Amino acid sequence: MIQNARRCAESIVNGGRAQYYYYAIAWLGKVRAASIQLGQTEDWKRYRTSLLQTHARKRKLVAMLHQRYLT
């Protein structure tokens, strides 16, 4: 499930389709929830950090990630 949700989110983000970032954030929410439920919180944090670093220039995405997962 985690891999599938990551793939869906990454296809949106990597495609630069800003109008669909909301859906990518929703998929990432599923990744986060599953990771926490499986006791893989550190894996989630590393993945979130890598997304922020990789896509640092995508301001809309970064703002959404900060709002949803860093507050």
Helix content: over 70%
List the uncertain runs. none
The radius of gyration over CA amounts to 11 Å
Number of strands: 0
Distance between the termini: 25 Å
Please indicate the percent range of residues in DSSP E strands (runs of 2 or more).
under 5%
Q: How do the SSEs run, as a string of H and E?
A: HHHH
Structural class: mainly alpha
Shape: globular
Largest sheet: none
Mean pLDDT: 94
Give the assembly state of these chains: single chain
Number of continuous helical runs: 4
Report on this structure.
It is built from four helices and no strands. The protein has 71 residues and is mainly alpha-helical. Helix 1 (2-14) runs antiparallel to helix 2 and helix 2 (21-37) packs parallel to helix 4.
What keyword list fits this structure?
single chain, 0% strand, 71 residues, 4 helices, mainly alpha
Quick rundown:
With 71 residues, the protein is mainly alpha-helical. It has helices at 2-14, 21-37, 41-54, 59-69.
Indicate the topology.
Elements: H1 2-14, H2 21-37, H3 41-54, H4 59-69
Helix pairs in contact: 1-2, 2-4
